[in-house]
Amino acid sequence: MVVVSSRKDEMWVWTGYFDSRLTRSEGRRVPKEAAISTPTLEAVAWAARAAGITRMRRKPESSHPSRPFTQEGRLEISTKDALSSTGAESKEGVLQSIGLRLRAQMKEAKSAESQSAAKGPAKGNRQQRAQRKSFKKKAGQRKKKFGRK
């Protein structure tokens, strides 16, 4: 059973198309260089908007026919808008354009996260600063044994 968009003027973009954990035979439709692990519908929508696609609808509760056990969600994109804004000639070109932007955004987010983690907590954030303090034994105190005060 093949489920196809009822209208020819729109294309469906499933989040599984960009999942690097899936193989091509399992449903990934972009190369590994344009895929990420566990893509969300919001991330795919952001990447589509970054590619220049403006006319789209989100369907978060839908599941792909070959993966009915996961509600991955899909984007319904205007075919005319997608082809003209990305400069692609087919759906595959549109998917690769979205996937490359998705991958770039994910790399950017990871590098920003690692930089903030390396920097440490902010100066005024007392709770996080307290978490990183080491509790060394104070000089002159012995270690207390169980039951002693």
Largest sheet: 3 strands, antiparallel
Q: Spans with pLDDT under 50 lasting ≥5 residues?
A: none
Termini separation comes to 75 Å
CATH fold naming of the domain at 10-110: Phenylalanyl-tRNA Synthetase, Chain B, domain 1
Report mean pLDDT, rounded to a whole number.
85
Architecture (CATH level 2) name of the domain at 10-110:
2-Layer Sandwich
Record field, number of beta strands: 3
How much β-strand is present in the residues?
A: 5-15%
CA radius of gyration is 24 Å
The secondary-structure element order is EHEEHHH
- Class of the domain at 10-110 in CATH? Alpha Beta
CATH superfamily of the domain at 10-110: Signal recognition particle, SRP19-like subunit
- Fraction in helix: 25-40%
Give the strand order, joined by hyphens, for the main sheet.
1-3-2
Number of helices: 4
Class by SSE composition: alpha+beta
* Shape estimate: elongated
